[in-house]
Recover the amino acids of this structure.
């Protein structure tokens, strides 16, 4: 499992309390995963937003009053679930979380 979480500045500010969370989910072979479920929970409010990845593996979620700390969980059929923390730094309102999933092993 490999993921990167990089805040990035948006040219036009959405708002001081609105967060845009975006990213791309790929499999172990770097091929985009369509239909992966992405759950993002605001640590501050406990609110969870859910979406699925598009055919290019990308997803976007908008949080109003989301806070600055999030828990991200990504699940896809045949893949090991990925859960990680995503934190806003400074006044950034766009957070990027790209994830490379690994396959589930069975014994």
């Amino acid at each position: 499992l490999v993921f990167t979480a990089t805040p990035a500045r948006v040219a036009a500010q959405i708002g001081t309390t609105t967060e845009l969370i975006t990213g791309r989910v790929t499999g172990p072979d770097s091929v985009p995963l369509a239909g992966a479920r992405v759950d993002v929970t605001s640590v501050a409010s406990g609110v969870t937003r859910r979406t699925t990845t598009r055919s290019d593996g990308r997803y976007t979620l908008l949080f109003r009053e989301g806070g600055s700390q999030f828990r991200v969980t990504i699940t896809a059929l045949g893949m090991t679930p990925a859960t990680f923390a995503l934190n806003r730094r400074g006044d950034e309102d766009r957070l990027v979380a790209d994830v490379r999933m690994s396959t589930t092993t069975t014994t």
Remarks:
- Confidence is low (pLDDT under 50) at residues 6-15.
